[in-house]
Design goal:
Layout (H helix, E strand, L loop, with lengths): L1 E3 L3 E6 L7 E3 L4 E3 L4 H14 L5 H35 L18 H10 L6 H5 L3 E4 L4 E5 L3 H16 L14 E3 H4 L2 H20 L9 E9 L7 E4 L5 E8 L2 E3 L2 E6 L10 E3 L5 E6 L2 E5 L2 E4 L1 E9 L1 H4 L12 E3 L7 E4 L3 E3 L5
Helix pairs in contact: 3-7
């Protein structure tokens, strides 16, 4: 008798629909389960930030209820968008959907990744091949994509944005951008980027996650006049993050960093890091950070949240509790549950 290996089912934590709901107007992440709980937990701080009248509070309540409903439908609606895009969308740059080639990657990135897989590679050797933005905060930077690949990807993203295809929000804070798995760029672009290049790099920079970065969530965010211009303090729903500036021409919009799992209200004297087109910033997902207001132009960034199911299955990084698993589409939020093993019927005959 044979037994097939138990498949993994990807999940999200149930807290996704009640924790870390972002209220941009008041610059606040809240936990929301009921009107009474919201008043009790956040009444004073909301009033201090301008939520004063009954009308203000009712408007906030309506927005939170709508966001909870959106999150509850997210997996199913995202799968439907992906299917429609796959069947009906005609890319402007089909070449960016080809499997990732070395020619798309900056020579410095290729050299750092190659070193990371070489015998005897160590952290000190790798640090000679990239920029240490902050040794204390363990933030690093290096070129990732060539200028020509950034331009090709931007042309494709522009084309998709102007199409009549349905578009989902890239994350729970940004309103403008693209989910790369919906556009069909996960398999050809992001998965090989993670498996071939980021995993060995991150294993040296962040050895606590060596061999454990098994999924990702990748998206492009757009900042422009009349759209999103800045991003409030937050943590990423990730163990590690890569943030690459794709372009276009812009001023302002620098990233700023606080401490690891620091309360946003305690942020003082943050470290500011300017974006450089083609270059990627590497940091821990739990590092408090945000984006300063855009000055002029448009800024597009590719963000890859790298996740380790072996880590988050023990403790959800967003609610800091053992995750309450809910089955989800695709990689979900990187949590896994082992499905029951199946009997190999062929082995019985």
């Amino acid at each position: 008798m044979g037994t097939a290996a138990a498949p993994r089912r990807f999940c999200r934590c149930a807290c996704f629909c009640s924790e870390n709901l972002y209220v941009a107007r008041y610059g606040l992440h809240v936990r929301f389960r009921s009107e009474q709980q919201l008043r009790q937990d956040y009444g004073p701080i909301l009033r201090s930030r301008g939520c004063v009248s009954p009308k203000d509070f009712q408007q906030l309540l309506g927005e939170l209820e709508k966001e909870v409903e959106r999150r509850q439908r997210l997996g199913q609606e995202s799968a439907a968008r992906k299917a429609l895009i796959a069947s009906s969308y005609h890319p402007a740059r089909p070449d960016v959907y080809s499997s990732l080639q070395d020619v798309a990657l900056a020579p410095e990135f290729l050299a750092a990744a190659e070193y990371s897989t070489s015998p005897g590679a160590d952290l000190q050797g790798l640090l000679q091949r990239l920029e240490t933005v902050s040794e204390e905060k363990r933030i690093y930077r290096l070129p990732v994509f060539t200028a020509s690949f950034c331009q090709a990807l931007l042309e494709e993203l522009d084309h998709f944005e102007q199409s009549d295809m349905p578009k989902g929000r890239p994350n729970t804070m940004n309103n403008y951008g693209v989910l790369l798995h919906e556009l069909g760029l996960d398999e050809p672009l992001v998965t090989p980027l993670r498996e071939r290049f980021l995993q060995p790099l991150m294993a040296l920079l962040y050895p606590e996650y060596r061999g454990w970065l098994d999924t990702h969530h990748a998206f492009v965010v757009k900042y422009a006049p009349g759209q999103d211009r800045e991003l409030g303090c937050h943590y990423d729903n990730a163990e590690l993050t890569l943030n690459v500036a794709l372009g276009k021409a812009f001023t302002g919009g620098a990233l700023y960093f606080g401490d690891l799992f620091q309360a946003p209200s305690a942020l003082a004297n943050p470290l500011e890091v300017e974006h450089v087109v083609g270059q990627g910033i590497l940091h821990r997902g739990g590092q408090l950070h945000g984006a300063r207001p855009l000055g002029t132009g448009e800024r597009w960034n590719l963000v890859v949240w790298l996740r380790a199911s072996a880590v988050r299955n023990r403790l959800c990084p967003m609610c800091c509790r053992k995750p309450d698993l809910v089955d989800d589409e695709g990689f979900g939020d990187g949590f896994t549950r082992e499905e029951p093993a199946t009997v190999d019927v062929c082995a019985l005959t």
